[in-house]
Amino acid sequence: MGSTASMRRACGPHRSATRHAQYCCHATAARGCSDRIARRTVVTRRADVDAALHDARVAAHLPARFVGQESFMTAEGILALARSAGVGADTRVLDVCCGTGGAGRHLVRTLGCSYHGVDADAEAVASARHHAVGLSSTYAVHTVPPLPVGEADVDVVLLLETVLAFPDKHALASAVAVALRPGGRFACTLEEGTPLTPVEREAMPAADTVWPVPLAEFVSTLADVGLATVSVQDDTASHLRVATALLTQFTAARDRIEAALGATFTDDLLASHRLWRDWMASGRIRKFALVSEREPIDGVLEVAD
Fold this sequence. Notes:
Strand content: 15-25%
Number of helices: 13
Shape: globular
Number of strands: 8
């Protein structure tokens, strides 16, 4: 949870752990990353990356469940989160940091929503447009925040697998609150945990794009801008299964990936996936799906296992 430096400045690195792991080698000094990361910079075309990783992604998710997602989310998990946010026919959805739009296309085809995706990676947006021909969806290149809509202009804001990329969670939440209509909902996934230690940052490629946050702190940040969290779902187990499967498939395809994208990219790809797998397995990082509503509601926060 695009992959270029410009996207890192806007939407964070990629879609969460998987998107981070798969594109971490694009990190550049332009965003103020460490010298260690700058030395590891690899410039790779987005289309080449997607082509080199496609078969492994399909195998990890299983063909019937791969919908073009660049994340540890399952196709079922994407739908479940959208439905819990009330996404349905004609719902106005803004997908922030949409990447190549796989999750969005899945929602449009299944739920019939009116969909607009934004990402700072022009290559990702071009790919999303190409694959969405004939669907009720539009895309734009945009730096976030702010969001590219008017005040109270959308029903649902989605941020799938990219909250970790924003160091300033308050600025992000404020932008979301402004964009939502009264009663509108913010649906996101969260990499939950304390900030990375210096040792962890040294181990993680492109660590300047990895900013986990404790769940209670994030919920409080949302509340501060008028977003009341109405549901929290712990999806760590399913994300761990996908991370493990992706690591297995990427490891098996290592020679092919390295031939297409280079040794540095491949080393960072595998190292990142190992870290995300190990952190989720140990409880160092947990993955949550949250829905928050712009207007306060009555009732008790529901936390599902």
